[in-house]
Design brief:
Strand content of chain B: under 5%
Largest interface: A-B, 27 and 21 residues
Oligomer: heterodimer
Order of helices and strands of chain A: HEEEHEEHEHHHHEHEHEEHH
Number of domains of chain B: 3
Keywords (chain A): ATP-binding, Nucleotide-binding, Phosphate transport, Transport
Protein name (chain A): Phosphate ABC transporter ATP-binding protein
Number of strands of chain B: 2
Pfam families (chain A): ABC_tran
Family (chain A): Belongs to the ABC transporter superfamily.
CATH architecture of chain A: 3-Layer(aba) Sandwich
Number of helices of chain A: 11
Radius of gyration of chain A: 18 Å
Number of strands of chain A: 10
Structural class of chain A: alpha/beta
Number of domains of chain A: 1
Low-confidence stretches of chain B: 243-250
Distance between the termini of chain A: 14 Å
Order of helices and strands of chain B: HHHHHHHHHEEHHHHHHHHH
Helix content of chain B: over 70%
Radius of gyration of chain B: 33 Å
Strand order of the largest sheet of chain A: 6-7-8-3-9-10
GO molecular function (chain A): ATP binding; ATP hydrolysis activity; phosphate transmembrane transporter activity
CATH topology of the largest domain in chain B: MetI-like fold
CATH architecture of the largest domain in chain B: Orthogonal Bundle
Mean pLDDT of chain B: 87
Shape of chain A: globular
Strand content of chain A: 15-25%
Chain lengths: ~270, ~500
Amino acid sequence: MMENIQATLNERASVTPNRTIKMKTEKVTVHYGQKQALNGIDLEVYERQVTALIGPSGCGKSTYLRCLNRMNDTIDAAKVAGTILLDGENIYDPDLDVVELRARVGMVFQKPNPFPKSIWENVAYGPKIHGLAKTKDELEEIVHTSLKKAGLYNEVKDRLDEPGTGLSGGQQQRLCIARAIAVSPEVILMDEPCSALDPIATATVEELIDELKQNYTIVIVTHSMQQAARVSQQTAMFHLGDLAEVGDTEMMFSNPSDKRTQDYIMGRFG
Amino acid sequence: MSTFTIIAIVLLIGAIGATLGFRRGSALRAEGGRKPHSRPVYHASYVFTWGVIPALLVLSVWLIASPILNELNVRGDFPEGAVAEANLTDDLAYGIVESIGSGLRALPESERETVTAETPIAEAVPLFRQYGVPVASASADWMIPLAIERNAFQDISRWAMTLVVIALAAIGTFHGYRGIRTRLRARNKVESVVNSMLVIASSIAILTTVGIVISLVSESADFFARVDPWTFFFGTVWEPRFAAAGSGGAEGQFGLIPLLAGTLYIGFVAMLVAVPIGLFAAIYMAEYASNRVRSVAKPLLEVLAGIPTIVYGFFALVTVGPFFRDLSAQISGLLTGDYSAFIQAQSVLTAGFVMGIMLIPFVSSLSDDIITSVPGSLRDGSLGLGATRSETIKKVVLPAALPGIVSALLLTASRAIGETMIVVLAAGVAANLTINPFEAMTTITVKIVQQLTGDLEFTSPQTLVAFALGITLFVITLCLNVYALYIVRKYKEQYE
């Protein structure tokens, strides 16, 4: 296992990371009813980088991810406290519109969830709602660009009016990524985007993530340490609601300082 | 011995057999050697099945066959010409014999012995009166011996049945018990018995439907032999003319159109009330209401569904109808100065409105289930793109739920079409053909009730028309239901 990850890291010529802070959280706690799911998370997410959140099941990484675009608002019992800043602005500020926030911080879910509409409609959904296109041609343009960016265009260009639910799992997930890109977000959150996909589809999505980071800030939750090693520049290790360790991906996997991270990476639990 | 006692004894024998079977099965297991094929509980059920099922089958066949044989026997003994002489039919004569027979059973033992085959009816009648047994005036002397004969046959049959059934239970149990051995596939055998019971249960439902349809079809055929189908289906006047029945030629007019129009019109008004209110309620319950509100409000809404329709009916009659009438009087008074009501107390509007209220819980409850079953991941996907809740509902949830909602509405519509009591009380029984919703109309179901509760022979077209109406209604609701099922099936494929 270690050798594998090491090999992946060596393969990647690590570029000097750009260190502009895009999102920053301070003392973020989440309660589900009585149960505390996150115990004060401080984390910085850098612009145009991939930040991977890893950790055993139930450690709070998905809960944390869902705080970043306030998707936890949709769960009645969830109570979020602390500060979450996007470009220095508190996203839980009562003056801030959650709809606008979610347009800036998009999300791709664990299970591909295309709407039961045509491929074209799926991608056009967000731009239509936010009125991003003034004319039909502009909308057409957005749809095509988004599909191209998601690496799906060539596969579906002849059947844009067929239902999105008819695509294969991997294609569906890329359709969901295209749908998220179409509203031109600044940050894309991905919640285990490959967990329902086969290895080949996973590889395609990972390549896509690598390309997307040139334009977008990406935060990805993953169960696969190889995946974290392959796609991310920064890795945060969660454990039982705590942030166990955070640092450069390369550092984390070659020289973890926290015992829990060591154990997890060595496959002793999780 | 009463039938219930016999059944109880059979079950008791079966239970004893089951206990023994269970012990034997456990013993087989304890013996070691080859492991028994089935667990003791299956051995027990195996013995029980052998003991109970054949015995109960014979019992039910006997209970059906014995009275038939008895009747055939007694009828064969009717004296030549006596029935015709008394101006009776065979059926009526046998009915009287039967009631004398059961009258005899009602007498105390000491009195019963005084009535013999030779007792003339004139002597027996005061005796029967004394014990409150009614006797038909057409009864004759020759009936008493037949009644005694019938009772004797009945007694013998019952004794024989008791013996045979209990013996069969015992033999069956013994046979089952003897059959228990290591390799006995008791489990599979018991399961095949269960299997056939399930098949029987479902075929009863299907056969009933088939039977109802056949009787509807044959009676309707009888009606259409007397009345031209063309005038029935396309006639615009409904006037069966009860008074003229049997007087030949003047059999009235059976035009379906006013009734069909009334049915559809009232149903339409009802849907106009029920669909928006029910659908909005469902959307609120499924998408907006917090768990606490939902847990209180949803059962309350469904209480509406538990109110008997007749209660809605008199609510319409005493409250809603007069309210609409008075309201219309006020409105016309304000507008024209003439305080005469333009809405009749019994009207399409009243019936449709009240029926609509009745249908709200159907629409809301069915639609609520359908909306809730739209996967949450679709909502997340839409919200995650920055759509508001109402955009999500309008553009993602409702389109995804639409086929299901349409089929729910079709099911509701078929209920509206079949509704009777509200219409009788709220829209009246006058078969008008009008497009004014403020006037009275009536529906197919109401006319069926009216035709069948009349005091007419069962072979007159006035009565038979009920079957033709019934089959028309059946075909309409069947089509709606089949179409609804078809849509539901298509909808299921989409998500699973």
